[in-house]
Design a protein that fits this description.
By secondary structure, this protein is mainly α. The protein is 94% helix and 0% strand.
């Protein structure tokens, strides 16, 4: 339920309860006092009717899951307003003495006061409903904040994972470079060993040649 509708609803309940009390007291008046009170009531009815129209417009913009409940409440408020209009019309069409006698005989005063009490209870129920709605909205806000924190944590974990993958790829590249370097050094070592063997062979051949040359010279 929207906060705008709840505000209109709260205002209407207050005005309706006030008008009911005024209707109950107006039946006991006469003359100018009665006319003045009826004028005040009619002004209040205009204000209440304007709130009904505003609630009607607001209710039609709500989501389907809450719209049906709100429109049902709105029908009750329209019926309540029509009852108040009928009561004001009755008060305006009778003289003060007849209205006072009829009011006392029919027990209309008690009925109107009971209706005022009922509206008071309805207003209290509306307040409790509004408080529950506030708690639900607060819980929803907490859930949204928690969800936002969770998303932030997941993003941080994703970034850390990307960093670890990058570090792993870097280490893998280093390992490859080390492997290639090791192969190069092994190859160089083998070449050096082969070159040492060749040089040693050459030196041995030269020594042998020198020995043979000396040998033949000594014989001659």
């Amino acid at each position: 339920m929207s906060q705008v509708f709840e505000g209109y609803e709260r205002q209407y309940c207050e005005i309706s309860a006030n008008l009911t009390r005024k209707c109950a007291s107006t039946g006991l008046l006469n003359g100018e006092q009665k006319k003045q009170k009826i004028s005040e009531i009619k002004s209040g009815l205009d204000e209440a009717e304007a709130l009904i129209r505003k609630m009607d417009l607001e209710a039609r913009t709500l989501q389907p899951n809450t719209k049906a409940m709100v429109l049902a409440k709105l029908r009750e408020y329209k019926n309540d307003l029509n009852n108040l209009k009928s009561e004001v019309k009755r008060l305006s069409s009778t003289d003060s003495q007849a209205a006072r006698d009829a009011l006392l005989e029919s027990g209309m005063a008690d009925a109107l006061m009971a209706s005022a009490d009922q509206r008071g209870r309805l207003l209290m129920s509306t307040e409790r409903l509004n408080q529950s709605s506030d708690r639900v909205r607060q819980s929803r806000m907490t859930m949204q904040e928690t969800e936002a924190i969770g998303v932030s944590i997941l993003e941080d974990l994703h970034q850390q994972r990307q960093s670890l993958l990058h570090a792993h790829n870097t280490l893998h590249g280093v390992d490859e470079n080390v492997g290639r370097s090791k192969k190069i050094l092994t190859s160089m070592s083998r070449r050096m060993n082969r070159n040492k063997w060749i040089i040693g062979s050459i030196i041995a051949v030269l020594v042998l040649a020198v020995i043979l040359i000396l040998y033949f010279k000594l014989r001659h």
